[in-house]
Design goal:
two-stranded antiparallel sheet; 440 residues; 8 strands; six-stranded mixed beta sheet; alpha+beta; 10% strand
């Protein structure tokens, strides 16, 4: 449950080896699953910072290419029927299903599936498209009259786009040449009176046109990767700036102490010439201040409570400025010394928790409240990311879903003195707790 008292504690995932007894969810799991894709459709239709730039581009290209495949299949149906009058119906149906059948699936999985799934389906669509050309080459055993080109030649760009979405640039370019050559060969054997020179022209036209589509996808994909890298650099830079600010504050405090106490005492001693009780007390007080400064001095690479809170607030609001952020300090304690590296790890895990909430906690028909609470105590910090959204059954999370196990709990597990916990149940929201203590 995201907020308020709980009637029964939902199961907890921790970054350590904790044994917890699962409880029966109050909300039927089927209803939660039924709304998952609806939530995904709503999420993919708006630009948010819940996903990285690369993932958002992947989803939108997957949806567009999938829908384009459906539309192209419908538009080509009359031409397919006309060119297949003398062909066995089974071969025609097989070729159509191979050429267009995976594109509705690609559009569907692009709404809410993981990026790896989208790429796998896109790769399957590309390979299936090549298989369709092979089937046509075998089925059309003799030239067909009154056609300018085989229908699969005209929609080759669909296969190239799917390949560009699924694979890196090298394999996608290889697919472009293979697909263009195969489509030109199909025209050579199916279209009447086609010369080798005309086949070379068909190959050049297909490769040239599809290269434009391939370049668009590759450029957009690389741009998204650059944005993600710049975001990581900006996060590291923010941590460095926070550390520099802590160092500047320490230097200013020490300079003020030197000027106001040490130099003043030395100046009075040089002027006095004789021992004075006032001068003695001033010297003693200066020594006490120096001892206090040495005992409480801040490491340049550590953040105090104020800097740590500001750093975590920036990490959350970079994901979504609408998430509530509250900071609390335990009365009498303000001596937090949080290493900059630890602050970066906590901020990354907290940002991933916020992104997961934005992706998966949405519930149709009502607004989901999300809030982050940071509590600073003596030598430690505790961060909670809560929402009152859909929640989930932790026992049913697939093993390849790495957002929680790696990006949140894994990060905190590797942080000295850190720990992470996830508390969730269907219909009762999710709470992610991140704790760090300097003593471990």
């Amino acid at each position: 449950m995201a907020a308020g008292p709980r009637a029964a504690s939902p199961p907890v995932i921790a970054s350590g080896l904790l044994d917890t007894a699962p409880t029966t969810p109050a909300t039927p799991l089927d209803r939660v699953r039924a709304t998952r894709w609806w939530r995904g459709l709503a999420a993919v239709s708006r630009d948010t910072a819940a996903d990285g730039a690369s993932e958002r581009i992947l989803r939108r290209f997957g949806l567009v290419i999938g829908l384009a495949g459906v539309i192209a299949g419908l538009v080509e149906l009359p031409e397919i029927a006309d060119q297949s009058r003398d062909i066995a119906p089974g071969a025609t149906i097989t070729a159509v299903l191979l050429a267009f059948g995976m594109f509705p699936v690609l559009a569907f999985v692009s709404i809410g599936a993981r990026p790896r799934t989208i790429r796998m389906v896109s790769g399957a669509a590309a390979i299936s498209f090549l298989a369709a050309m092979v089937v046509i080459l075998l089925a059309y055993s003799q030239p067909t009259d009154a056609i300018g080109s085989v229908w699969v030649y005209r929609v080759l760009a669909l296969g190239v786009l799917a390949a560009a979405l699924a694979w890196t640039t090298g394999p996608a370019i290889g697919y472009l040449f293979v697909g263009s050559a195969l489509s030109a060969v199909v025209n050579l054997f199916v279209v009447p009176d086609v010369s080798p020179l005309a086949t070379a022209g068909d190959f050049a036209r297909a490769a040239g046109l599809c290269a434009l589509f391939l370049w668009c996808v590759v450029y957009a994909r690389d741009a998204g990767a650059r944005v993600d890298r710049e975001s990581e650099v900006a996060s590291s830079r923010a941590a460095a700036v926070a550390g520099a600010a802590a160092r500047d504050r320490e230097r200013a405090r020490f300079a003020a102490l030197i000027h106001d106490a040490v130099l003043s005492t030395l100046l009075d001693a040089s002027r006095g010439g004789t021992e004075s009780p006032v001068l003695r007390r001033q010297a003693e007080r200066t020594m006490e201040q120096l001892d206090e400064s040495r005992a409480t001095s801040t490491d340049p690479d550590h953040l105090d409570a104020q800097s740590a809170i500001g750093f975590l607030r920036s990490a959350v609001h970079e994901v979504n400025p609408g998430i509530e952020f509250t900071a609390r300090r335990t009365a009498g304690f303000d001596d937090l010394r949080l290493p900059v590296t630890a602050a970066s790890t906590i901020a990354a895990a907290l940002a991933e928790a916020a992104r997961n909430s934005l992706r998966h906690a949405t519930m149709p028909g009502r607004e989901v409240r999300r809030a982050v609470t940071v509590t600073v105590s003596a030598g430690g910090i505790r961060t909670e990311m809560r929402d009152d959204g859909a929640g989930f059954d932790q026992n049913l999370v697939p093993v390849d879903r790495l957002g929680i196990s790696v990006s949140i709990l894994g990060r905190m597990r590797q942080l000295a003195g850190g720990a992470g916990f996830v508390e969730a149940a269907p219909g009762q929201g999710t709470t992610v707790t991140l704790v760090w203590g300097g003593d471990g």
